[in-house]
Amino acid sequence: MTFTVDERYSAEQSIALRYAPALLDGVELADISRREGVRILDLGQWRGVNLKLLDESSWMASGTYKSLDGCLSTALCRKEGIRRVVFSSGANAGAALSLYGAATGLESFFFCPAGNLHKLDGALFDRPTAHLIAVEGSDRRVKQAAKRMAERLGAPVIPTLEWRMLSAGFRGMFLAEQILRHGQRFDWLAQAVCAGYGPLGIYRVFERLLAPTVPKFLAVQQAGLCPIVSAWQQHRETLPPLTGTDWREKPIEPALYNVHPDQTYPELFGIIQRSGGDALAVCQTEFDEFGSEFLARVERAGVMLTRVNDQIVERAGLLAGAGALKAIAEGRIAPGATVLCALTGGVGPVPSKPAVPERWIRLEDNLDAN
């Protein structure tokens, strides 16, 4: 991998366009890109640890870092002549794919957990080729419903694993540039994880450009659903068989809903281990305590998270920050270190209208009949 950039585009404009020369070959993004900007902000010190914010929300067209998935996947579909696609998502990836697909007229079938519809802007589905299907039940049921539809339509399920890795690679390139060209130092990178695609793509870049010294990775999950943290604490290199899909407590962020990320966990385990990192879970009480402290710092830095009915819509970034503060309080991160906390979403417009699914798959429905 070579460290090449397109100097016509700043990171604040689009890290997809800036780092495309290093990661892509023959894929045109310029007419599809909306805005995929990233910045780093200083959040001051807390208990002797330097806190910084990786803002991957404020300057993203969809309001989350999933804008990168939307931009790249749409461009790759065009390159490969794909006109119809299926995807499932807790909310953010599906919203971004629906948004960017409009640029090429891509027909999309978005399968979303019924409980997360409030996170979506109904305007995304005004065009006749953007379909929204609500599914009741576990994340696996949502994915199974999407897979059945793809089989019936003869359409691919996107993004593929490699497309996800490429998308996250843009994030890795941005951070590598800050370290290699601008002398910034990050001892830790903290991110809330669901399946963990983002860290995998970031650390693939890190291990090519920064090895042997890479930032330690802190994987943060919510205590109600934390298969990665549980397996890490048991020193397991693979996930144990799935034994249940129920939340153990009310979710902090319902979009982080993957109950058994068995495909990504082994590589994620290696990243945490090789980097000298850690994994921890945050319960609601800890989120209230550490999350409020982190939120205050984020908003003092000028980043105002979107609220509906006085409730923050997207909490994954706050979960990462709460996890970092918990790690500091417990002594896992030592004074003098610098922690970069990924705000992967949270800033964006309030939905202009409710998202109304054109189909609703209920718990009693047979997936094979839908």
Features of the shown structure:
alpha/beta, globular, Rossmann fold, 2 domains, 35% helix, four-stranded parallel beta sheet, single chain, 370 residues, six-stranded mixed beta sheet
Describe this structure in words.
With about 375 residues, this protein is of the alpha/beta class. The chain has 2 domains: about 15-65 and about 160-345, 3-Layer(aba) Sandwich (Rossmann fold); about 65-160 and about 350-370, Rossmann fold (3-Layer(aba) Sandwich), CATH 3.40.50. It is built from 10 helices and 12 strands. The strands form 3 sheets. A 6-stranded mixed β-sheet has the order 1-2-11-6-7-8, sandwiched between helices. Strands 3-4-5-12 form a 4-stranded parallel β-sheet, sandwiched between helices. Strand 1 (about 40-45) and strand 2 form a beta hairpin. Helix 2 (about 65-80) packs across helix 3 (about 90-100) and helix 9 (about 285-300) packs across helix 10 (about 315-330). The longest helix has 20 residues, at about 160-180.
Low-confidence parts lasting 5 or more residues at pLDDT below 50? none
- Number of contiguous helices: 10
The CATH class of the largest domain, by name, is Alpha Beta
> Oligomeric status of the shown chains?
single chain
Fill in the CATH topology of the largest domain: Rossmann fold
Number of strands: 12
The backbone outline, from C-alpha atoms, is globular
**CATH arch. level architecture of the largest domain:** 3-Layer(aba) Sandwich
**Proportion in helices:** 25-40%
**Secondary-structure element order, N to C:** HEEHEHEEHHEHEHHEHEEHEE
User: How many domains make up the 3D coordinates?
Assistant: 2
Q: Mind telling me the C-alpha Rg?
A: 19 Å
Structural class: alpha/beta
Beta-strand percentage?
Answer: 15-25%
N- to C-terminal separation? 45 Å
Largest beta sheet, briefly?
A: 6 strands, mixed
The average pLDDT value, as a whole number, equals 95
Which strand order spans the largest sheet, edge to edge or round the barrel? 1-2-11-6-7-8
